[in-house]
């Protein structure tokens, strides 16, 4: 967000250099703010004040829904393209990042389980630790029961066997049998369509950008649809992601344009170009919840006039824990969610949220975000994930 703001504030700041200088105390470093590489070409006039991700929808006035403008296709740029890292084995590579933030399991829990004499007080502590990890009340209790049983039956308490036991039980809870494959291949001569939804600020646009890179790394043809028309900066942000890897973005120049019509055009473009995948980014805020849900349903329906939407990914910010989960639930009522993307796992010690989400939503976590970097998105794998959780 910060980078984005800088990128699109740069022209403004440069243009108003003198004013900026006068406004600041003399010793405040200004150059630093202006340091990032040359600004991306801005095709949409920047709004006077970009809303921050924290702001709530309700304060925004309802935009006039003018007759659908023809969404514009941005041509592929003649710049040197980045080569995204392949996705295979990413979770293992990014494991340190996850392990560092998940010491609830790796330290607290293992130490408790490795004690010589585990009495009821210790079991209570184990349960509390599991609750802190965001596992959710029922799964925490279940896990404690399973562990109790095994400790009684097996009797061994050396750190290695305790670790192995915990690993087995956690893997079972994360459920390796769930189908976590993304539908991202052409079907019936049409591209796969993936729609990305979720609350404002959770990382939807970033995820679409990162996912486009994963697909490009696999030599797939991708088209992006900027159906977050709530503010121009959102389309700009997506276009920038696309440009870096030579992927086209279909967008509307008009703020507040009908997102469904952008989605429609994006899929239409994908079909015309015989693309493999069309990724549709959406807005996470609107004037009201009901309004947003209605709109998302419409985006999906209208896109499906061109090709079936085979995948709806719900993005959830892991750092918001059970709260975020409650908010996200609403989306499952508006659209048929087929997979979860859990972002910002690099910033939480609450890995249990994976289990809680899958249990409560009945949908598998398919991808996890492990940082703000362009390739910090990994396909979710139950065993690699648990290994990272309990790594020493
Ligand atoms: N640390 C971290 N930050 C992330 C991750 N994914 C997204 N973000 C950041 O979250 C902020 C909001 O992202 P954005 O994609 O604009 O959210 P959107 O409103 O849902 O589209 C940005 O600053 C992103 O860089 C992640 O996996 N880890
Ligand atoms: Mg966005």
From TrEMBL:
Reactions accelerated catalytically: GTP + H2O = GDP + phosphate + H(+)
Molecular function GO labels: GTP binding; GTPase activity; signal recognition particle binding
Membrane topology per record: Peripheral membrane protein
Subcellular location: Cell membrane; Cytoplasm
Designated name of the protein: Signal recognition particle receptor FtsY
Annotated organism of origin: Enteractinococcus coprophilus
Described function: Involved in targeting and insertion of nascent membrane proteins into the cytoplasmic membrane. Acts as a receptor for the complex formed by the signal recognition particle (SRP) and the ribosome-nascent chain (RNC).
Keyword line: Cell membrane, Cytoplasm, GTP-binding, Hydrolase, Membrane, Nucleotide-binding, Receptor
Residue positions binding GTP: 198-205, 281-285, 343-346
Cross-referenced InterPro entries: AAA+_ATPase, P-loop_NTPase, Signal_recog_particl_SRP54_hlx, SR_rcpt_FtsY, SRP/SRP_N, SRP54_GTPase_dom, SRP54_N_sf
Membrane among keywords: yes
Transmembrane segments: none
A Gene Ontology BP annotation from the UniProt entry: SRP-dependent cotranslational protein targeting to membrane
């Amino acid at each position: 967000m910060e980078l984005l703001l800088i990128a699109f504030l740069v022209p403004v700041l440069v243009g108003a250099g003198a004013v900026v200088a006068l406004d600041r105390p003399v010793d405040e470093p200004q150059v630093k703010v202006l340091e990032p590489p040359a600004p991306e070409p801005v095709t949409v006039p920047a709004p006077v004040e970009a809303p921050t991700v924290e702001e709530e929808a309700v304060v925004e006035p309802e935009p006039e829904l003018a007759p659908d403008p023809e969404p514009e296709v941005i041509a592929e740029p003649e710049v040197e393209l980045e080569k995204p890292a392949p996705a295979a084995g990413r979770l293992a590579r990014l494991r340190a990042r996850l392990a560092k933030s998940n010491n609830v399991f790796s330290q607290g829990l293992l130490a408790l389980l490795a004690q010589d004499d585990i009495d009821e007080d210790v079991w209570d502590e184990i349960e509390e630790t599991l609750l802190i990890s965001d596992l959710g009340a029922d799964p925490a209790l279940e896990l404690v029961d399973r562990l109790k049983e095994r400790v009684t039956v097996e009797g061994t308490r050396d750190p290695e066997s305790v670790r192995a036991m915990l690993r087995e039980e956690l893997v079972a809870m994360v459920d390796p049998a769930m189908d976590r494959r993304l539908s991202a291949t052409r079907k019936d001569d049409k591209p796969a369509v993936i729609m990305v939804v979720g609350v404002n600020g959770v990382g939807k646009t970033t995820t679409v950008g990162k996912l486009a890179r994963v697909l490009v790394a696999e030599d797939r043809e991708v088209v992006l649809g900027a159906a977050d028309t709530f503010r121009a900066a959102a389309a700009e942000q997506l276009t920038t992601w696309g440009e870096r890897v030579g992927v086209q973005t279909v967008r509307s120049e008009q703020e507040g344009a009908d997102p469904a019509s952008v989605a429609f055009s994006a899929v239409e473009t994908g079909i015309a170009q015989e693309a493999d995948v069309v990724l549709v980014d959406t807005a996470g805020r609107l004037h009201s919840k009901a309004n947003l849900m209605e709109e998302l349903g419409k985006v999906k329906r209208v896109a499906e006039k061109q090709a079936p939407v085979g995948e709806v990914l719900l993005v959830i910010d892991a750092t918001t824990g059970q709260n975020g989960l409650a908010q996200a639930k609403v989306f499952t009522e508006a659209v048929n969610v087929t997979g979860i993307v859990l972002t910002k796992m690099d910033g939480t010690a609450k890995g249990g949220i994976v289990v809680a989400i899958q249990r409560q939503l009945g949908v598998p976590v398919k991808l996890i975000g492990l940082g703000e970097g362009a390739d910090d998105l990994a396909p979710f794998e139950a065993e690699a994930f648990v290994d990272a959780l309990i790594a020493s």
